[in-house]
Specification:
Layout lengths: L2 H9 L1 H6 L10 E6 L11 E3 L16 E8 L2 E11 L19 E9 L2 E9 L11 E13 L26 E12 L10 E6 L2 E6 L10 E15 L7 E4 L2 E4 L14 E5 L2 E14 L2 E6 L8 E8 L11 E13 L28
Antiparallel strand pairs: 1-18, 2-5, 3-4, 4-18, 5-17, 6-11, 6-18, 7-8, 7-17, 8-9, 9-10, 11-15, 12-13, 14-15, 15-16
Length: about 375
């Protein structure tokens, strides 16, 4: 029996039949197909982070990424290995400030993706150590952009900078931050592996949801599939003089418009004084063909890069071990080009936060 079918039976065949993975839309295009058969990480497709975020860890480094041989469906293949170094690690690889413990590895796609199907074959840990407490293996999309203004009135809109939004200020006055992220899933909070997080981030707002994934973290490969959909949602009572056009979209410029009616997202002009919001509608998730759950709250519509890897924040708990791998056998991404996609606004690569000597990089 096919291993993926065995996994479906283990999860419960009734749910798998109730919500099967749908056929791809006719307009879907295969935008990324990676199986590491070249034996290397293609720099035109991927880049590795040297970055620390959150507390209680020394970041992620490129040295913890490698293409190795592993058995996938009974065959030896090239796979991506992302290593997590736990609290007991004392080897030569270090992260922020030269610290060796609690250092992971994350690989990021060069391409930004919008609505579509994301299919990732991932294995967490090993059969002997399938659910290591203290680390966070994850698959996620992420995009960001900081829009800054120099002004004595940071809590107002500014016609010369239509993308600046006073409600999106972070890290200081006059700094508005756009954020797009979907986690599918993020394992390991407080050592939890049966109920990982499926989070969404829409600018300053986010929703954290957990779904039961059974024993998917069992030291074997499983196929994770997520479908992200976007659309245009009409918004009432907006006139042309309350918005400004910039970079192919329309942006709210009036605080009288309720923020929760658009959450900082751009608008599409349909006709005079008539607009719709670019909106993330849903993100549905399957593992080995079994329907896991769906995000419908605060789903982003702006593009994000695909992230694969593992990190060790303090909220994952103690990592009482030396080193544990997370493997990725293949990645395929189809793009749906839904009407609600916001492309060309979030376009930057994620920046490193420390150098190869472990010293923080200052802006």
């Amino acid at each position: 029996m096919n291993r993926f079918l065995i996994a479906i039976v283990g999860f419960g065949i009734a749910n798998a039949i109730a919500e099967p993975i749908p056929d791809l839309p006719e307009k879907a295009t295969l935008a990324l197909d990676e199986d590491w058969s070249s034996g290397r990480i293609d720099p035109h497709r991927w880049y590795a982070l040297r970055k620390q975020w959150g507390n209680g860890n020394a970041g992620v480094v490129p040295e913890n990424l490698a293409i190795v041989d592993d058995e996938v469906d009974g065959m030896r293949r090239k796979v991506l290995r992302c290593l997590a170094h736990g609290d007991r690690y004392e080897g030569p690889i270090s992260g922020l400030w030269g610290k060796t413990a609690r250092v992971g590895g994350v690989l990021v796609s060069k391409q930004h993706f919008a609505s579509g199907r994301f299919e990732v074959v991932m294995k967490i840990g090993s059969r002997d150590h399938p659910r290591p407490a203290g680390m966070v293996p994850a698959i996620w999309t992420y995009g960001y952009r900081m829009v800054k203004v120099i002004t004595d009135a940071p809590d107002a809109f500014h016609s010369a900078h239509p993308l600046y939004h006073p409600y999106l200020q972070q890290w200081g006055p006059g700094q508005a931050f756009y954020w797009s992220e979907i986690d599918f899933p993020e394992y390991g909070k407080a050592g939890e592996y049966r109920q990982p997080m499926y989070n969404t981030f829409l600018n300053k707002q986010h929703d954290s949801t957990t779904f039961d994934v059974g024993d998917a973290a069992d030291g074997q490969y499983h196929r994770y599939v997520t479908e992200w959909r976007t659309g245009l949602v009409p918004i009432a009572d907006i006139t042309d003089d309350q918005v400004a056009a910039s970079e192919g979209f329309y942006w709210v410029q009036d605080q009288a418009i309720p923020y929760e009616s658009y959450w900082g997202a751009p608008l599409k002009r349909l006709e005079k004084d008539h607009y719709a919001v670019y909106t993330g509608l849903s993100a549905k998730h399957w593992i080995d063909g079994k329907y896991i759950g769906e995000n419908t709250k605060l789903v982003p519509a702006m593009t994000g890069q695909l992230n694969l890897g593992v990190w060790l924040p303090d909220w994952a708990g103690p990592a009482d071990w030396e080193s544990v791998p997370v493997h990725f056998a293949s990645i395929r991404v189809w793009q749906f080009d839904d009407a609600g996609d916001v492309k060309g606004i979030l376009t930057e690569d994620i920046t490193d936060s420390f150098d190869n000597e472990g010293k923080p990089i200052r802006d």
